[in-house]
Amino acid sequence: MERETDDRCRPMIEMIGVEKGYDQLAVLTGIDLRVERGEVFAVLGPNGAGKTTTINILTTLITLDGGVARVNGCDVAVDPEGVRRAISVTGQNAAVDGFLTGFENLVMIGRLARLGRGARRRAGELLEQFDLVDAASRRVSTYSGGMRRRLDLAISLVARPPVIFLDEPTTGLDPRSRQTLWRVVRELAAAGVTILLTTQYLEEADQLADRIAVIAGGRIAALGTAAELKQRVAGERVDLTFADVAAFDAAAAIVRGEHVVIDAEQLSISVPTEHPVATLRDLIDLTDRNRITLASIAINKPSLDDVFMALTERTPQGVAA
Model's pTM, two decimal places? Predict the structure, then answer.
C-alpha cells in the first residue's frame, strides 16, 4: 500500500539539470521540469529552442549529456526499456502505413503490442473514439491529412500507455480536425493519462495545458499556468486604432509611456496599463482635446502571444530543433 502511494505521488516526467549539445552548439543548458500524473503539460519555444530535443531525450531517441531525466519513475539513461514500455509518441509526421486500411493499421499495432485476440476489439474502440468508423475499411492513402493525424494518435493509444508525448500534433490541420484532436486530448487527461505537448500554436497551449513551460536559450524561461504567465509578463492594455494615417500620426506624436507599442502598418497604438479604465478615460480625453478621430478603442488582456514574444526575444536562440 505504501509503495502504491509513493508511485501516485511521484512525477510522471521529471528533468533535473538536463543538458544536451551538438559539437560546439549547446541546445539544452539545464532544463528542470516536473509533470504530474494526469497533467497536460505544454512546452513552447521558437524554432531551435530545444522542444523536439527535449522530447527525443525523454523518449530515449537520443542521449543526454548531463543531468537526470525520468519517465514513470524510470531513468532514461539507466532503464530505457522501462521508459519505452510506459510511453507512446506522436511525432510531427503521421507514422501510418498507407497501403493498409485504418482498421488493419490498428490491428497490426495491437498484435505487436501482444494484445492477441483483443487487438481487433481495441481497434474498433479507437476507430469509434477518433471518429474514423466510416473510413475503417479504406486504405490510409485515401485519408485526408486530418484523418491520418487522428489515426496516428489512435495508434499511439493501442497499448493504453500512461504517458503520451505529442510533438506538434496539429501542425497543418484544418480547424475542425484540430478541434477533434483537442477533444481527444482532454478525454485522455480526464482518464488519468499524462501528456507532454509541444506546439507552435499558442492558442492550443492556452486551451489544453494545465501548465506551460517556455524554453528560451536552452533553459526554462518561464513556467506556470496560462493565467500565471500572462500576469507575470504583462498587465492589461488599451489598444487604439485609427481610420487614416493623419489621425495615427497625430496620436503617435502625443501618446507617451513606457512600453507603448506604435504600429504604423496597422495604424494602431497599444498602451500597457495596470489601471485600464482610468487609462481608457485618459486616452479618450487626450484624443478628444486634440481632435483626433479614433476608429476603435478597447481594453484587452494579455495573450500567450504577448508572453511568448516577451520571453523569447530576451534570449538569443540556437539553431537546433
Answer: 0.77
